[in-house]
Design a protein that fits this description.
The protein has 374 residues and is α/β, with parallel strands linked by helices. The protein has two domains: 65 residues, no CATH class; 266 residues, TIM Barrel (Alpha-Beta Barrel), CATH 3.20.20. It has a nine-stranded mixed beta sheet. The chain has a three-stranded antiparallel beta sheet with strand order 1-6-5, with no helix packed on it. Strands 2-3-4 form a three-stranded antiparallel beta sheet, with no helix packed on it. Helix 2 crosses helix 3, helix 4 packs parallel to helix 6 and helix 7 crosses helix 8.
């Protein structure tokens, strides 16, 4: 089941560099060990894996079994994460691993997040190799995406530390399902995050994702109020599941009240996948309705995603409604921000992380092969 390790007497060193000790766990009275990284609190006997697949009990401790291994690397537009207010137009080196600590029936990346095969992790790279590749490819950021970086936290944090030495940003694309203590450590090193706010009822989280809503709300509030990490949210709208007017009103009102009106919200379209093949794709009008509800409740920057909608993809001044950034899919078509990030018409600041000129990466997607795992 696992790669070969050193003899049991050594509890800190493993033969395989992909296996590293972790420190968010504690022993239980019944002989099991509880992983404390996320609110699942998996309780493991020797040799067992957590639901996430990549954290396991070996040699009487919880270890990460996928350090330095990836399901692939790719250069994407930052807008694909999606982040619309963080260095628009710039390329980001993206990668993920295998596994996930939620069990979403609608997962759009299920081939990676639900994988139980180490063969999925076909690429390997040290943090230093990733940073060198990002520099060579002209990437301003490295994104942990495709599956949730929470479950490979030790690797993600080490990559972020190496990135910061070269002034490259760390971007987390995450469901925000993490416990309080590791949350503090993880977001200490993140420069931007898009948190997947999957719905606004605990019933949805439990029945469809196998988790709970409150830990995600706690993560959102922590990022916004306790860190310097730039925050945006995404909600995948599934017909008949989380797209009612009431739920959208409740969600967007909560965001304005607890996170403030300047946190961008993305509403993206579902397509049938994984274990929800019986649901139809999300109509474009549903996304527009969600955007209108959000803006009606005071969200200043609401976006539609996974559909062609230049109006819903573009950024407007919330005071005078001047179009500040025009977008057509992932291509920036218009740039009207002043050099200091303000509206040129009324002078109102547009919150985010901007430079005087946008990047020019566009919609390109460039797969990258760094190394073949042994």
């Amino acid at each position: 089941m696992f790669w070969q390790t050193v003899e049991v007497a050594d509890l800190t060193t493993f033969d395989d560099p992909s296996i590293v000790p972790t420190h968010y766990w504690h022993p239980l009275d019944d002989g099991r060990i509880q992983c404390d990284l996320c609110p699942r609190f998996c309780k493991l006997k020797e040799g067992q894996q957590g639901l996430c697949f990549v954290r396991a009990r070996q040699q009487d401790q919880i270890v990460l079994t996928s350090y330095g291994r990836s399901s692939g690397f790719c250069v994407d537009p930052i807008e694909k994460k999606p982040l619309n207010h963080f260095l628009p137009g710039t390329p980001v080196l993206s990668f993920g691993t295998a596994g996930c600590n939620l069990a979403c029936k609608f997962c759009q990346n299920w081939d990676m997040s639900k994988s139980r095969e180490m063969d999925t992790l076909a690429d390997a790279a040290t943090p230093e190799m990733l940073v060198e590749a990002a520099e060579r490819l002209g990437c301003r950021s490295i994104a942990y995406t495709y599956n949730d970086p929470v479950i490979f936290m030790e690797y993600a944090v080490d990559v972020a530390k190496a990135s910061h030495e070269k002034e490259i940003n760390a971007v987390a694309v995450t469901a925000g399902y993490i416990s309080e203590e590791p949350r503090i450590e993880f977001y200490r090193y993140m420069d931007a995050a898009n948190v997947d706010l999957k719905a606004f009822t605990d019933d949805f989280y439990w029945k469809i994702c196998g988790g709970h809503l409150q830990p995600v709300l706690d993560t959102l509030k922590y990022i916004k109020h306790e860190t310097d990490c730039w925050l945006e949210t995404t909600t995948l709208l599934i017909p008949g599941e989380n797209d009612s007017d009431k739920e959208l009103h409740d969600m967007t009102q909560w965001v304005v009240e607890h996170l403030g009106p300047d946190v961008p919200m993305h509403f993206s379209a579902f397509h049938p996948d994984w274990k929800m093949m019986d649901h139809p794709p999300t109509p474009a009008k549903t996304l527009s309705r969600a955007r209108n509800i959000a803006m009606g409740n005071g969200v200043r920057y609401a976006y539609t995603g996974n559909v062609h909608d230049e109006t819903g993809e573009s950024t407007y001044c919330h005071v005078c409604h001047t179009r500040l950034i025009g977008r057509d899919w992932y291509v920036i078509t218009d740039w009207n921000l002043s050099a200091d990030g303000n509206c040129p018409n009324c002078g109102e600041a547009c919150p985010g992380v901007f430079e005087p000129e946008p990047g020019t990466w566009g919609a390109k997607r460039m797969p990258v092969r760094l190394a073949k795992a042994v």
